[in-house]
């Protein structure tokens, strides 16, 4: 009995590489990649020398702490984040009227301290509220002094507004930095 040899059928795959290459190009061109922008923060210049110990009048400092449980504490008391902007404005723009708040906007300092367990979302939300408070104070000053909002001022007038309402937010390291378990 003779066996017949069957010829194996081959699939022509020569154009598969071209198709794969075209699909790769298509997906590379049509895909967008989100780039994290991060926080826009001006850092002090690097120095080998330790920073000088600055003594501030206690009433000029607004102490803000975000603990590991994501509780916002201002001057040791719990505070809702919705109230932070108004409290910050009250502290900075006090002009020495109330004894528990700053003497003047130039002397006012906001001290922000967070814990290692603080969530990024709450940290960013607090930063936003603090900057919004300063932006509203600057807008108010610009409207009184020049009749327009801060954003539309020329550089010289913006500088004057910033001198009257300087952004002084001090960020301290968490207490447990450098400690090992």
Largest sheet strand order: 3-2-1-4-5
Number of helices: 4
Order of helices and strands: HEEEHEHHE
Shape: elongated
Largest sheet: 5 strands, mixed
Per DSSP E runs of 2 or more residues, the count of β-strands stands at 5
Strand fraction equals 5-15%
Task: Provide the fold topology.
Layout: H1 16-30, E1 61-66, E2 72-74, E3 77-78, H2 84-92, E4 109-114, H3 120-146, H4 155-164, E5 169-172
Parallel strand pairs: 1-4, 4-5
Antiparallel strand pairs: 1-2, 2-3
Helix pairs in contact: 2-3
How would you describe this protein?
This protein is α/β, with parallel strands linked by helices and 181 residues long. The protein has helices at residues 16-30, 84-92, 120-146, 155-164, and strands at 61-66, 72-74, 77-78, 109-114, 169-172. The chain has a domain at 58-172. Helices cover 34% and strands 12% of the residues. A 5-stranded mixed beta sheet has the order 3-2-1-4-5, with helices on one face. Strand 1 and strand 2 (72-74) form a beta hairpin. It is elongated.
């Amino acid at each position: 009995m003779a066996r017949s040899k069957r010829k194996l059928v081959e699939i022509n795959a020569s154009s598969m590489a071209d198709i794969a290459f075209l699909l790769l190009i298509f997906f590379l061109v049509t895909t967008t990649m989100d780039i994290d922008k991060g926080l826009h923060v001006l850092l002090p210049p690097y120095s080998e020398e330790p920073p000088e110990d600055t003594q501030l009048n206690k009433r000029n400092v607004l102490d803000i702490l975000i603990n590991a449980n994501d509780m916002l504490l201002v001057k040791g008391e719990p505070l809702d984040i919705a109230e932070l902007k108004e409290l910050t404005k009250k502290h900075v723009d006090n002009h020495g009227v109330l004894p528990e708040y700053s003497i003047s906007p130039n002397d006012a300092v906001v001290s922000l301290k967070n814990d290692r367990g603080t969530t990024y979302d709450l940290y960013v939300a607090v930063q936003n509220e603090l900057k919004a408070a300063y932006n509203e104070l600057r807008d108010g000053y610009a409207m009184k002094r020049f009749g327009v909002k801060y954003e539309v001022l020329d550089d010289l007038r913006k500088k004057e507004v910033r001198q009257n309402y300087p952004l002084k937010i001090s960020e301290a390291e968490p207490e447990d930095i450098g400690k090992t378990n």
